[in-house]
Write a structure and sequence with these properties.
single chain, 213 residues, alpha/beta, D-amino Acid Aminotransferase, Chain A, domain 1, D-amino Acid Aminotransferase, Chain A, domain 2, eight-stranded mixed sheet, three-stranded antiparallel sheet
Amino acid sequence: MEVPIYSNIREDIELIETFLWDPEKGAPDIDFHLERMCKSAGNLRFKFEIRKIRDQVFKIKSEKRLRCRLTLSISGETNLSTSILNPNPEAWTLLLSDSILSSSDPWLLHKSSNRALYDTERAKLPDGIDEFIYLNERNEVCEGTITNIFVKKSSQWFTPPLSSGCLPGVLRRKKIEEGSCKVGIVTYSDLQEAEKITVGNALRGEINAVLSS
């Protein structure tokens, strides 16, 4: 019998949402972020008070675009920190990681502090590389350290399915729901032969990308 993921969670694990705050639009994707956090909180048995969190978000004020990081502990304690969001470069250069993800790892479906691999590898990105890309045990493309992946092939955009092993990102969800992207298995060959590649998340938006030669 499979052991539920919530049965062996360390008490220091936190759920995380990182979102954009804009001086004119506020936090445009906050409903998507809170919905994802609420779903993870339910699955992982975290306490979650959405009204308290909304109150924190709506108190944010700034004349600049902000990177907002919201954390939730198992006991329901929250912390919201902000920092100035720097503009994206015109394009990111991607490199395949040597690390292999397990498509059956349930933690890949939850944005949490249980991400030592991503944090460690992102901290040691080689010069000229902006993002690592991960494959699973079936050699399917999963995601980046902080981004979902979008690939254009045969004039159609695709993003890997959750079953490959990736986070249900907010930007990914919006693109799927608006019909600008389909869910489909993506291989490394697809990346190499793609008409176009982008990576992104709700904080930074969609960024043009190229594979490192």
